[in-house]
Predict the 3D structure of the following.
Amino acid sequence: MATCPVCFRHCEIRDGAVGFCGGRTAENGITRAYNYGKITGLALDPIEKKPLARFFPGSRILSVGSFGCNLRCPFCQNYEISWSEEVFRYAESAEELTPEKLIELALGARSRGNIGIAFTYNEPLIGYEYVRDAAALAKAEGLKVVLVTNGTAEPEILETLAPSIDAMNIDLKGFSEDFYRDLLGGSLGMVRRFIEKAVKTAHVELTTLVIPGENDSEEAMREESRWIATLRNPDGESVPLHVSRFFPRFHMTDRGPTEVETVYRLADVAREVLPYVYVGNC
């Protein structure tokens, strides 16, 4: 058995088995990324799609993702690659995209406005070894490196990656420990600690998806934005917040999309203390 170091679950994984996230396994008593180089998504995206509003706006970035996730959000828009049975079957025969090949693709896309690589689509931190290896090569070539993550990882994982990460968008899915535990199977405390460390080394922007009846109160947004206001990015600027509109997906089709008015109202609440607030999916 091997103890996984990535997140609060610290799964005990037998050799050849996989952990809760589906993306980590064990070999000779040591955990490793089972999803290493097994790519499910690759696209040249606008940087604003990550979303990042204050990091090289107007540019494009080669976005890459694998499979697996250490949360279980019932509204997941990428559940097919996060933790479906189909993607695990795909993993058995998937050809590895090596970090070297990924860098080659990124450099080849420079002529189309590419500034680097974004690790996104699924949860990249569960396969941090691939991020680590590819990001180091990217930095050596002058490419920017972006991480789009749920922030559910131990500080040691962030410390391993920090030297090569230029920017992050981190999901702050709500501001209640009950919300994280009961709805997502996660830990708000771990995410807050991750964010507090991340802002010291990289440009960070946060995203909150507003879900009707779950995290859509003014009180919750006011508490969240006041905490965000205590943070500063390395350049001294306030951390931007993206307030995003929910649409029914996956296991959460029992309600309609968030009212546009609600998203704008909560964005205005956040603007009471935050200078950079953006709305999404409206």
Residues 37-280 form a domain with the TIM Barrel fold (CATH 3.20.20.70). The chain has one domain: 37-280.
